[in-house]
Specification:
The complex is a heterodimer of chains A (about 400) and B (about 220). With about 400 residues, chain A is an alpha/beta fold. Chain A has helices at about 10-15, 15-25, 45-60, 70-85, 95-110, 150-160, 200-210, 230-240, 260-275, 290-295, 310-320, 330-335, 350-360, 360-380, 380-395, and strands at about 30-35, 60-65, 115-120, 135-140, 165-170, 180-185, 220, 250-255, 280-285, 300-305, 325, 345, 400-405. In chain A, helix 2 runs parallel beside helix 15 (about 380-395). Helices cover about 50% and strands about 15% of the residues of chain B. Chain B is built from 10 helices and 2 strands. The chains are: A alpha/beta (about 400), B alpha+beta (about 220).
């Protein structure tokens, strides 16, 4: 859990922003917020909650975080849901739906619902809304649902319609719904181990540890080993660049406890990378300082996702003023304006070309990185996210377009 | 000196915090865009003509309204994009009149360029209609004279400046910005009030707007 105090963020965003957060938090006095998701560690949702919950508490908002129980079978099914919602072909049968509903029913029976506002994250706990009474319920979708498998979407709609509001990370994910829906981008914490400034010795130490050389450009993708992050495609991109520029590829990431597919993908990646000593594959579960150091040591950061809810690794890279080449999918174009704060691509060839451009034009790459950092400062830091969540909670009690508090 | 004059009524600074609501409505062609511009809530028109002011506080490559950006960058209709971009928002006293001007600009263009309506955006590049929900809160900052006013202006958030300059005039429908209203009615300095009213705030970043208003007031009261 985050131990950083709210006032410490004033050094990054300015004191007036912190004053506004304090003003706003007073309007939520007496409300109990209950967050519910499916994993306490690993993945973007758990990471955000571990930063947000302590800060909301420090702002005197009575905020809690509970985790549902799942098990291998349940998470195998929800991983299929996850892929299907991203539009990937998945065979989901009645047995899968039965497992999902049965485990969900166990959670309904076991989980204590006590929040004035129950804030449910992603599809895994979605069925809990059956316990709705007089309190308010929000469903927060962190997934790219711009072209979901219709069968699964319709299955989930039966539950979504019972919420008071839904939240998506990009306008492209917004379907027509009979409930209110809001656009809230995720965020990064500039003071966390993953994003804070690091001494050069720390960065150099991490490079030595993993035998990565500063003498050759380092192209990096930080991501879970997940097909939707296309790590095999990244190796193809690297090979295209390598033909013209001697460079290294770094594929690094942890795993989430609700992602059983990760091991298999990691094996495929290792297999494809074998015989090339310049490809470094690192499994770094929850080692935030090392991830931070690797991002800072990189020459170019790539995020070649096929689908992406938002792409917090892109936000992290931009915050470190790194030039980024990333797929034009999901929430990534909200973060990168092409040729201004990074380069967007739609293919392996496009990504390879963009990386070559950046390696050959370091001044241009530097400018893109600097613009990206300012865009993140203004729009994607934790303080903006805290503000949005407090406004979201307040919106449940106000229907107007202009609300006087 | 007018900075020493106590205001009849003190000026309490408010701040405005924005939450973006999704509508699920999207357009792929100019005709669809036009039809939706005519029917969406005013809060949508407000959002797409003002979002850039707060999200791009530094020099930004984006045209100053979302309609112009989409028409130019996605549909490739630069001629229409330029006309939409140069709509002089400050001249419109209400969202309703601004909406009519945007709709008429597109209608006129379509009449003269029928082929433009055959263009579709690629999948994933549709225009998504969003809505601004504003939360207005009084801050602890109160000015009783122009010296206090400039001191507070230097440290208040840009959200507060945004609220008193943009939102008060167009969205709340006060006809002029709050600063000018207060300076004229409570300080009695119409010349200074007019000088601030004459600014076209849409052509400044919010930080530049802050500096400009402070400079105008300081020059007037000789500090």
């Amino acid at each position: 859990m985050n131990t950083t105090k709210i006032n410490e963020y004033a050094a990054v965003v300015g004191q007036p922003i912190i004053d506004d957060l304090k003003l706003l938090s007073k309007r939520l006095k007496g409300k109990v917020i209950q967050n519910i998701n499916s994993t306490a560690v690993g993945g973007g949702v758990a990471e955000i909650l571990s930063r947000m919950v302590p800060l909301l508490r420090e702002l005197n908002i009575d905020t809690h975080w509970d985790v549902i129980k799942g098990g291998r079978q349940f998470f195998d099914v929800t991983k299929k849901f996850h892929n299907a919602l991203h539009g990937r072909p998945e065979e989901i049968n009645q047995r899968d739906l039965d497992i999902f509903l049965e485990i969900s029913q166990n959670n309904i029976e076991e989980m204590d619902i006590y929040g004035d506002i129950v804030f449910v994250h992603d599809p895994q706990p979605i069925v809990l809304v059956k316990k709705k009474k007089e309190n308010k319920w929000i469903w927060r979708c962190h997934i790219d649902v711009s072209s979901p498998n219709q069968m699964i979407w319709e299955f989930l709609e039966d539950f979504i319609f019972n919420y008071d509001a839904a939240v998506f990370s990009s306008p492209a994910f917004s379907p027509k719904l009979p409930i209110r829906q809001f656009l809230i981008s995720p965020s990064i914490d500039p003071l966390s181990d993953k994003n804070r400034e690091l001494p050069q010795e720390t960065i150099d130490g991490v490079l030595r540890k993993y035998e990565i050389y500063k003498s050759k450009p380092i192209i990096t993708q930080i991501s879970r080993f997940d097909r939707l992050k296309d790590p095999l495609g990244v190796i193809e991109v690297y090979k295209q660049v390598k033909r013209y520029r001697d460079c290294q590829l770094l594929l690094a990431g942890g795993g989430a406890s609700d992602d059983p597919e990760g091991k298999k993908v990691l094996e495929e990646v290792k297999d494809k990378a074998k015989h090339d000593p310049d490809i470094h594959i690192l499994l770094l579960p929850q080692n935030d300082i090392e991830i931070n150091a690797l991002q800072r040591a990189s020459t170019v950061i790539i995020q070649k996702s096929i689908k992406e809810g938002f792409g917090l690794t892109v936000t992290e890279a931009l915050w470190k003023a790194k030039p980024v080449v990333a797929s034009n999918v999901g929430g990534i174009p909200l973060q990168i304006t092409h040729k201004y704060s990074g380069l967007l691509c739609n293919s392996i060839e496009g990504a390879g070309f963009a990386i070559k451009q950046l390696l050959n034009s370091p001044e241009y790459a530097k400018k893109l990185g600097e613009n990206g950092r300012e865009h993140v400062r203004n729009n994607f830091l934790l303080t903006r996210h805290l503000k949005d969540y407090m406004l979201l909670f307040l919106s449940l009690y106000h229907r107007e377009d202009v609300v006087y508090l | 000196m007018s900075e020493l004059l106590e205001a009849k009524e003190p000026f309490r600074f408010c701040t405005r915090l924005n939450l973006t609501e999704l509508t699920g409505l999207r357009a792929s062609t100019l005709s669809q865009l036009l039809a939706l511009i005519k029917e969406v809530p005013g809060a949508c028109i407000y959002h797409h003509t003002h979002r850039f002011l707060q999200q791009h506080q530094y020099i930004s490559p984006e045209p100053p309204n979302d309609f112009a950006y989409w028409v130019t960058s996605i549909l490739g209709e630069g001629g229409l994009g330029e006309r939409l971009m140069s709509i002089d928002t400050i001249q419109f006293p209400t969202i309703h009149s601004l909406r009519e001007k945007i709709a008429k600009t597109i209608e006129d263009y379509l009449r003269d360029n029928a082929l433009a309506n055959l263009k579709f955006s690629a999948e994933g590049e549709e225009f998504h209609f969003l809505k601004s929900v504003s939360f207005v809160l009084p801050t602890n900052y109160v000015a009783c004279n122009l010296k206090e006013f400039t001191d507070i202006l230097e440290k208040i958030t840009i959200d507060s400046i945004y609220f008193h300059i943009f939102e008060a005039r167009l969205r709340i429908g006060k006809g002029d910005n709050d600063f000018s209203n207060w300076i004229e009615c409570s300080i009695g300095n119409k010349k200074l009030a007019d000088a601030i009213s004459r600014l076209d705030p849409y052509t400044y970043t919010l930080e530049d707007l802050r500096k400009t208003v402070i400079e105008i007031v300081k020059k007037d009261i000789h500090i």
